[in-house]
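Q: I'm building a small set of examples for a reading group on sequence design. Run inverse folding on the following structure and report the sequence directly after it, with nothing in between.
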């Protein structure tokens, strides 16, 4: 997970979860 993303922001938390799954691109779309 890129530490540059603010994990306190619930939207970015979703991105971090998708990033861990190797699906960060879908996180951006969502």
């Amino acid at each position: 997970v890129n530490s540059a993303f603010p994990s306190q922001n619930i939207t970015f938390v979703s991105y971090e979860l998708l990033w861990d799954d190797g699906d960060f691109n879908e996180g951006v779309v969502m």
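The longest helix spans residues 10-20.
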